[in-house]
Design goal:
2 copies of one chain form a homodimer. With 238 residues, chain A is of the alpha+beta class. Chain A is 43% helix and 22% strand. Chain A contains 9 helices and 11 strands. In chain A, the strands form 3 sheets. A 4-stranded antiparallel sheet of chain A has the order 1-8-3-6. A 4-stranded antiparallel sheet of chain A has the order 2-7-4-5. A 3-stranded antiparallel sheet of chain A has the order 9-11-10. The longest helix of chain A has 27 residues. At the A-B interface, helix 3 and helix 5 of A face helix 3 and helix 5 of B. Chain A binds a DNA duplex (30 and 30 nucleotides) through helix 8.
DNA sequence: TGACGTGAGTGACCTTGATCACAACTGTAA
DNA sequence: TTACAGTTGTGATCAAGGTCACTCACGTCA
């Protein structure tokens, strides 16, 4: 089955197959059926906006395939990327639960697929299935801790090098549990990295040069290799 | 009835009397009774630590009287204050729900009183009373939005003056709905203000001078008067 | 009354990173 | 191939704040 944008549609985009500990996993049969009724699946091209900061919350999106970036902008156009999401993540949950406008913009960074659950249906679903509400609370507090970590990074780490090192480490711990050296596929532009750590493109460029010279990292094409993890950890220090 | 620290014990420290929209308000009779059984009340002196960043979550504290500051520190000793809490606030909820260590330190800024609900009891209570779990979810998402606002402030506002102006406005909107001029009792030291906006004590001092010179604010003893709100709003711009 | 501690104001200096301005490099489409 | 847009590397400049080092003001306590 072929979808637009050269993507294969996943016949059964159940998030459980993607991530075991997931919000909507291991539900009772009845709850699972109900969930299947209220969700709908769609395919998105690169650059598609799932939702935009300030919009009234229409519902949540459960990413099945592809990556998305979550960002906020100031009026002057300065943008910060607050999170990179991939398959299994639930987007827009906070806004939907509290019925506040979406606090971020969610943009697909590559073609992907997502399940959509409208707000009304979800809220009703949670009222009918109290046991899932507690799961939602847990997910929300996980979101909170992620946000809190962001605060620590932005508020406590003074220099861009510190934040950059922290970012590199967070990448390599996520992926490189297999071998010690830590290889990461680098899919972001310097501009985007700058928006994550809150600095300018030029500074990111200089940081790459500096870290390469200090043998902290190495670049092979678009593959990033962490060369000296302890040194990076020493830079972080928070 | 006299308590230590020169504080009168509130005989009935029900949070509902403090804040109507509160988490544990308007419960069913049964739930209310149960809650009364599992909570305990205590009085704290100025400087008392309700809990400390990194500790295993013992339970939540519902502030009845007094103010508390929530803060995080880096290893090098740099500290940021992330929130000032007062009567009615629930502290430690995120940690308790997700069973992560407390992400902040909660310190009493003045003598006060709080209800304590142990973790185990609260979790059991929420399991027994599913309707309250959804309330908790809402509260968590409110916490999340507060955190998110902090991220926006730290990440998007570049200059200390911008953050300072934002802080001043947040103070005056909360208190001065009565008259336009905006009077606030200033209880924080410059040091503490610096920890809120992420700068140094000296810079805060200079900001006060600068804003006074520009007729944006005025100080009468420890009373802060906002003189030119539109100008402050123009400085914020985010 | 004086000693002490804490908080506040202010000047001098100096590092850091933002900004501007190009040049070099990449891939893609014509 | 050329043309072009998007990305990256790098130097020169500059202003904003952090840091340091004081002094002053105001309390409390002995």
């Amino acid at each position: 089955m072929r979808a637009p944008y050269g993507l294969n549609i996943l016949d059964n985009c159940l998030t459980c197959s993607v991530r075991e500990e997931h919000l909507f996993c291991n539900l009772s049969v009845h709850a699972g059926q109900r969930l299947n009724e209220i969700k709908s699946t769609a395919v998105y091209p690169k650059g598609a906006m799932l939702f935009i900061e300030g919009q009234q919350p229409r519902g949540v999106f459960v990413l099945c395939a592809g990556k998305a970036k979550l960002s906020t902008s100031s009026r002057e156009g300065k943008t910060i990327i607050t999170k990179l999401s991939d398959a299994g993540d639930v987007l827009g949950l906070n806004a939907v639960i509290s019925n506040h406008p979406y606090e971020v913009t969610a943009e697909m960074m590559e073609p992907g697929q997502a399940n959509f659950i409208p707000r009304e249906s979800l809220v009703q679903f949670l009222k009918d299935h109290g046991e899932v509400a507690l799961r939602v609370a847990e997910q929300l507090s996980r979101n909170y801790f992620t946000a809190y970590d962001e605060i620590r990074t932005l508020g406590l780490a003074t220099s861009p090098s510190e934040k950059f090192a922290k970012l590199l480490l967070s990448w390599s711990t996520k992926t490189a549990q297999n071998d010690g050296a830590g290889q990461v596929k680098l899919t972001l532009t310097h501009e985007e990295i700058a928006e994550i750590i809150g600095t300018t493109r030029e500074t990111v460029s200089r940081l790459f040069s500096e870290f390469k010279k200090k043998q902290l990292l190495q670049l092979k094409g678009s593959t990033l290799i962490i060369r000296n993890r302890p040194a990076l950890e020493k830079i972080v220090q928070s």
